[in-house]
Amino acid sequence: MSLVDPVIELGRGLWRTLSSMFERTVTYQYPEHKRTVRPRFRGRHVLKRYDNGLEKCIGCSLCAAACPSDAIFVEASENTDEHRFSPGERYASTYEINMLRCIFCGYCEDACPTEAIVLGDNYEMSYYTRKDAIYTKDMLIEPVSSVNQTTPQKTPTGVFTRSVPEMKDAKD
Amino acid sequence: MDKQVTLTIDGKLISVPEGTFVADAARMADIDIPVFCHHPKLEPVGMCRMCLVEIGRPIRDRATGQFVLENGQPKIQFLPKLETACTNRVEDGMVVHTQSESAKAGQKSTIEFLLTSHPLDCPVCDKGGECPLQNLTMAHGAGKSRFLYDEKLHLEKRKPLGELIYLDQERCIQCGRCVRFQDEIAGDPVIGFDERGRSMQIMTSSEPGFDSVFSGNTTDICPVGALTTADFRFGARPWELEEFPSICSQCPVGCNITINTRREAAADGSMVIKRIMPRQNETVNEIWICDKGRFAYHYTESKGRLTRPAIRKDGKLSRASWDSAIKLAAENFAEAGKNFVVLASGRLANEDLFNLKSLADHLKGDAVLYSEIGGGELTSAIGISPDTNLGEVGPGTTLVVIASDLYQEAPIWYLRLKQAVRRGATLIVANPRQTRLDDHASYVIRYAYGDEVKTVHSLDKKNKIGEAFTRSENVIIFYGSEGLGVEGSAALASACAKLLNEYGFAGKPNNGLVGVWQRANDQGAWEMGYRVEADLPRFLRGKVVYLVGVDPAGDDPRLAKALENAKFLAVQDILESATSELADVILPAQAHTEREGTFTSGERRVQRYYPALPVLGETRPDFAITAQIARQAGFIQEGTSVSAAFDILSETIPSYAELSYSKLAEVQPQWPVVGRGDLYYGGTTYENKHGLGAHLTTTASRGENVHILRVHRESAPRPQENELLAVPVTRLYDRGTTVLPAKVLKNRIGKATISMHPDIAERLNVKNGGLVKISFDGHSGEALVQIDKTIPAGVVTVPRSMGLAIHEPVPAKVK
Lengths: 172, 815
Description:
The complex is a heterodimer of chains A (about 170) and B (about 800). Chain A is an alpha+beta fold and about 170 residues long. Chain A has 4 helices and 5 strands, in the order H-E-H-E-E-H-E-E-H. Chain A has helices at about 5-20, 60-65, 105-110, 135-140; strands spanning about 45, 70-80, 90-100, 115-120, 135. Chain A has a 3-stranded antiparallel beta sheet with strand order 2-3-5. Chain A has a two-stranded antiparallel sheet with strand order 1-4. Chain B is of the alpha/beta class and about 800 residues long. Chain B has 5 domains: about 5-145, Ubiquitin-like (UB roll), CATH 3.10.20.740; about 150-300, Alpha-Beta Plaits, CATH 3.30.70; about 320-370 and about 525-595 and about 615-660, 3-Layer(aba) Sandwich (Rossmann fold), CATH 3.40.50.740; about 375-515, Dimethylsulfoxide Reductase, domain 2, CATH 3.40.228.10; about 725-815, Barwin-like endoglucanases, CATH 2.40.40.20. Helices cover about 25% and strands about 20% of the residues of chain B. Chain B has 24 helices and 37 strands. Chain B has a 7-stranded mixed beta sheet with strand order 18-17-28-27-26-19-20. In chain B, strands 1, 2, 3, 6, 7 and 8 form a 6-stranded mixed beta sheet that branches. In chain B, helix 8 crosses helix 21 and helix 9 packs across helix 15. Chain B is globular. The termini of chain B are far apart. The mean pLDDT of chain B is about 95. The interface of A and B includes residues 73 and 161 of A.
């Protein structure tokens, strides 16, 4: 090893430092600035609604069956036209996801026959207690834009008879 | 043994009994022929066409009747078209192809046709996950339909057939299993097909709808999700359920059941029972259970459960520790000596009853079974012997039913007797009024209430009935307590036992005396040496009473009064009751769904049940509580291991000798095969993997001497003018503490209904369904009137356990 080598190495290091001073920063000033997520990002789940406000979820529990970490718990009840939550006979009266167990694999999304559960963009989940990590249906369901879209709804007889809709082609 | 027939299915040479259907023969040889309408318990109908196969038969020479040979082998002729495997019986030399191209194409198109009008709403269907249509579509279906989705029929999704069973008309594939079950097996033809062709639908023709106590079974055998129970509708997905083997605790039949549990949010995340399903035991309940067994389980989750021990202090019950409660009870029991009484229920396990009896014996007290039927010691002397199977008795066997309405008291025995008649057994039904079993009886005997013993004495008279009786190879007598109290039924039992003994119908299989008890394990109590007490109110006065699993105060105001006058009351039970209100100490026990134990059925079969739910609160199993009390009283009993307690029991009680928990858990292969992956039966009857139980021996079968005491009984009371004779009868759906919490049965339980002859009703000026006041024995209550012309004049039948405290025939006034 000659005496020149350390000098070269030092120069290289300094050059790295100097050049990076002119590069674009990668650090985000979280939480003031939040990074937009990728289109296929798998964040916190959202239970979707149809345009008229009815819940897409029919309480079939297939998401819970598909879940590899047993994070989802669903209980179903029966709809009536007076008191309708979702199309068809069945709706989820209890829907809970334990976010501490969830591994965000998205299998629940795949299993859902009505495209009701979707992994959203939200990644801000932190809790002080284990119980707080259990997200209930109220927390997961998509908020409505107007009052007459809330569930349960009073619906005309014989209109919302199908639980499983005819699916259009998936967009992505 | 039946003649065997040899045939070839898919190249496999098999031998099966003559008369077997090809579909069943294939099943025996582990070859899979898909079926929907076929069910081995039902007559073949060939409605669904799912089992299409190619069947070839050897050609016989018309002149000689010999097989025509070709290259040394019989020449086989196939029909040009496919045939149904479920309607063709096996023949010698038959060749069946189930996997040939044309057979597979036939099965595939049948599925395609069935699905033309099936909604495919599997995600919301209760059968989804245990559905034969789902499974067979995956296995044999085409995957794609050539039919148009838009042309599917849209029908009613929620049509109540009654308040217990709902029909989804879209899902129904018109296989007719439910209709055939009701016609052939249950004998309640209350549902049927309406319309024809594509408009054909199931409808009910009874009022109230689907009026059968076996209705729940149709949901089990339905091969799609068309029939669902009100209780389990959308309750859970099948794959989420945990299964625990158990024994039904509602009646003495001892049906094998499976308890399905799941966590529930409403129960704060703890496990709850979601449904009760039958578990196959061909010697007890086959694959059926009654609706009471299926729906009346809700009492275990009732809000009124006792969960903590309590002691009466300053006139009020207040919370106490187990140690102090047990100490208090033990001190009082030990002091009482001869005044100590154990009043135990037949709902308790054998081990509980055994510990209670030995505690009573040790303290020189008395052990009394809380029951209204006497004579049980005779069933343990000449009751039915090992190797008896009601499912196999046929020609040569006479079955006698006296003073019991089996349809109401033990529905599965009604089914079994009805099937035995179909196989050729003789059935003699003796009852003062018409019962459902009369329709299937070979001989019906009508007698007046009070003449039960006389009727038994006339069974061997020289007439048609007497001949049928005396010439039989085997005789089983079922005796009950219709119109009888403790003394009356004891006299009846003694008369029956004497008759059986005289003609040698005892001590061998398919012979003996059976008591139609009120509770699941009354037989066990009789085997342990319990007795019943005819005049309980007088007997209990001033005693130190250890009440276990009973609610006398709730049943009868006279008993409530007697208990108030007792010296000390220790109440050990699962539910709060009028009796527990009076207690000096409360010992909370575990329900049978929360612990392990054994029951002895009325057929004297000991069967194990297993814990299904977690232990509630501070509750303990009954045998353990008794053992802890015994220990305080200076006497060691087994109080930790229930199987060890059973071992001690089997060493002590001769009829249980050589039985053990491992012996009770033994299973043998049973036909029909259920529970395999292919969900042959509609998938929801559970395979028995946890024990078929074992029969007890009798004094007679052990070859010991049998002594039968003649029991005299005063004749039935004579009602005065303007009075009627009120006689107790037993109903299936009563207001018992283990039935009432089942809200789904509310309508079926209904109000107390008394039945009387139209002439009497006219005299009293009451109409059918009218409300009357009935008073007897210083007790009165309201009841609805049912007019029934088969009720003898001068008599009014009063249901037990419906709020009217009737125990024996009494004169009554009706206004």
